[in-house]
Structure of Acetyl-coenzyme A carboxylase carboxyl transferase subunit alpha:
Amino acid sequence: MNGIWLDFERPIVELEKKIGELKGLKGVDEEIKRLKAQAEKLKKSIYSNLTRWQRVQLARHPRRPYPLDIIELITEDFVELHGDRRFADDYAIVSGICKIEQHRLAIVGHQKGRDTKEKIKRNFGMPHPEGYRKALRVMKLAAKFGLPVVTMVDTPGAYPGVGAEERGQAEAIATNLFECSTLPTPILVIILGEGGSGGALAIAIGDRILIMENATYSVITPEGCASILWRDATRNKEAAEALRITAQDMQQMQIVDGIIPEPVGGAHMDYETTARNIKSAIMKNMDELVAVPISELIDARIQKFRAMGVYKS
């Protein structure tokens, strides 16, 4: 498990450790077989009964695949595009042009970073205004050349620093919401890990919204919610339940159009299978979206977001 595991994964880790210790010994084949079956049964039991907070933990798992991991596995001829042509290049947003089988398209996503150096470089996946402006620049470029857009969302939220606010963080996000609502090209959104607040929504306006099985999508993090409601960030588990932020919740509330399955144990357990599932979802949805006239796509996109939410007077 890559040396990193969560609390609820520890029973599985202990079993796998025992299996590892027995390998190479003589006369223990039956015991290994029994322990493997027990481990598989335990995995299915644990991961089919996860709490909302446990899914938050999986969405944040440090070994969870990020957009560049998926891009490497499913695309051809990826050319990364940099800069917003106004201020700087924001490494919290990755963007570029690529090919997935017969589809040429643009990809935009949040990138968090693995080690300390890369996390700092990518600002933990929290974009500045220039990141959102870069994303919009690439999406407009895609529309100009008739390329569909795929966005991969994985951020705790937009960066709330003074510099970001001075450079127009709110305006950059609002502009993306406005422009993407009528962008004349198909847009497919995939919530890959954390879908946090306006920082996620800025690249999550699309014709189809898909979410990974253990991803989350919310107006605020559980810790942020707990801090505001109860002045106590340690009540994050309670906040996660109240927020209803899991993929299953999103599908029930009709916020998303579909759930992309993950391997047993989460996406971090098997990059190859995760990438295949994402590629399959992209191909299926793109085949359908590119067949729809652009004017109809835009009308349906606008109505899609207008219809979200239930209001009682």
Residues 70 and 275 are 6 Å apart (CA to CA). The radius of gyration is 21 Å. The mean pLDDT is 91.
